[in-house]
Each structure stands twice: as structure tokens, then as C-alpha cells.
Design a protein that fits this description.
Layout (H helix, E strand, L loop, with lengths): L7 E6 L5 E5 L10 H13 L45 H33 L19 H24 L39 H32 L3 H10 L17
Helix pairs in contact: 2-4
Length: 268
């Protein structure tokens, strides 16, 4: 017989030597026998502790707090915050195309934003001497027809290849289809993310890292598209570039705003 502390009224063993203990009083402080403590430690050692690596993610993040996501935006797309007020993506094929269109425009906008801000900033600090972005085209030694032809050939080729890859992913990597350079056109099998020479540092090889980078890309791309709209508006209202407008604003922030410009807000 085992001599147990008072809180345990009985101890019984089944055929597999498993102990079952029954407490007689919940108000009495329990003193666990040594074999119970050993068993608990053993179970704790076997169970992996994941609390330290727990990442809390807000579910149902929405572009407008309280809004309901459309049924076709179920959170599986990169950067899906439920924004489709006109219902343009209800058709699955249309949604796929709009996703690609947004991604391409986002990348162009990021390049355009850098191409506008950096030269103007370098000109301001005396490293370059170039005109503001909306006047830079006048300095190019191409007539309009030549520029159109170059654009049609260069962009036409790139966009045709992109569309063909959209219709049939990885079809542009067929051996012998592009003079031995088809490897860089093969793509990754996922539309919009070609990989290969377009990921020279291999930053997207890890799936978890790739998912994180995709989200950062589309967020920054959306911000860049809004910035481009702002640059267009600034140029029309002030005739200045964004760096110049920013310097003018911080020199007198209370009197140099969008509301103080009659071209920006004509009814004020």
C-alpha cells in the first residue's frame, strides 16, 4: 500500500499501470507525489513551446474599417484588403487580369516616382543640372514619330510576351524560341513574378520571405501610384516639381498649402 497525503482518498492501478487519483477536497492544497511531478516534466519536455514565436495577425483587415469584403476577395490575393467598390473583379478571369494590371502599374509608378524625385533632388543639391520632370522630354533628341516607333517595338514586345505568359504560364521559355535567351522569359510559373534574372540576389527563393516581399511591393506600388497622381496635380497647379513644392511648403507651412492655391481649389 502507498502512503498518500490526505487529499487523495484512493489510488488504483489498471492493467497498464496507469494511476488514477481522486481528490476529496478542492479547498485543500495538493502536494503532488514525485512520480506525478516527473510525469508532468516529461510531458512538458515533449511538447514544443511555440509562444515565443507567436505572430499575431489581424484577421479581416479592410481598406475601410467596418466594411465587408466582397465574396470574390477572400484574402488569398497578395495585399487583399477587400477593395473593389465597383465589383470589377467578380469574374475570376477578370480578377486575374486586374491583379496583373495593378502589379505592372505599381512597378511603373515606383520607377516613375524614383525617376522624378531623385533627379530633382540631385539638381537641388548641385550634383545634377536637369530640368523638372514634366519639361525633361523637351530635351530628348527624338522627334515624336521616332519615339512612338521605339515605344511600339520595345513596349509592344514586352507586353506581348507578358500577355502570352498570362494566358499560358511559362510558355515563353520554350527552348529555341528566343535565341537562347528564353530562360529569362520562362517565368516562375506564377504570373507577374518572373524570377530568374529578375531576382539576381535570390531574395524570393524562400517562400515565406517571398510572400513578405510581395506584400511590401504591392503596398509601396499603391503608394507610388497615389504619389504620381499628386505629382500630376502639383505640376498643373503650381508649375513646380514635388521637391520644389515640398521646400516651398516647409518654408511657410501655414500659408502654403493646397487650400491656399487657387488653381488647386478654385472655389476658395
Amino acid at each position: 500500500p502507498l502512503d498518500l497525503d490526505p487529499p487523495f482518498s484512493s489510488l488504483s492501478f489498471n492493467s497498464s499501470n496507469k494511476a488514477t487519483m481522486f481528490a476529496t477536497s478542492s479547498s485543500t492544497r495538493l502536494t503532488k507525489p514525485s512520480f506525478v511531478k516527473t510525469a508532468v516534466r516529461s510531458q512538458t519536455a515533449r511538447a514544443p513551446v511555440r509562444a515565443a514565436g507567436l505572430k499575431v495577425v489581424a484577421e479581416g483587415a479592410s481598406w475601410m474599417p467596418g466594411s465587408t469584403h466582397p465574396a470574390h476577395l477572400d484574402g488569398t490575393l497578395v495585399g487583399d484588403f477587400g477593395f473593389d467598390p465597383l465589383g470589377l473583379g467578380k469574374e475570376p478571369k477578370a480578377l486575374q487580369w486586374y491583379v496583373q494590371a495593378e502589379l505592372v502599374h505599381a512597378r511603373f509608378a515606383m520607377l516613375g516616382t524614383a525617376g522624378i524625385l531623385i533627379p530633382e533632388l540631385l539638381t537641388k543639391i548641385g550634383i545634377l543640372d536637369v530640368p523638372v520632370w514634366f519639361e525633361a522630354g523637351a530635351k530628348v533628341d527624338f522627334d515624336f514619330r521616332t519615339l512612338v516607333v521605339i515605344q511600339a517595338i520595345a513596349m509592344g514586345f514586352a507586353e506581348t510576351k507578358r500577355y502570352m505568359d498570362f494566358v499560358n504560364p511559362q510558355s515563353q521559355g520554350t527552348p529555341g524560341s528566343f535565341g537562347g535567351m528564353e530562360g529569362m522569359l520562362k517565368g516562375s510559373g506564377e504570373n507577374g513574378y518572373p524570377g530568374a534574372v529578375f531576382d539576381p540576389m535570390g531574395m524570393a527563393k524562400d517562400p515565406t520571405k517571398a510572400a513578405e516581399l510581395k506584400l511590401k511591393e504591392i503596398k509601396n506600388g499603391r503608394l507610388a501610384m497615389m504619389a504620381m497622381l499628386g505629382f500630376y496635380g502639383q505640376a498643373a497647379a503650381t508649375g513646380k516639381g514635388p521637391i520644389d513644392c515640398w521646400l516651398t511648403h516647409i518654408a511657410d507651412p501655414f500659408h502654403t498649402t493646397v487650400a491656399s492655391n487657387p488653381n488647386a481649389v478654385p472655389f476658395l
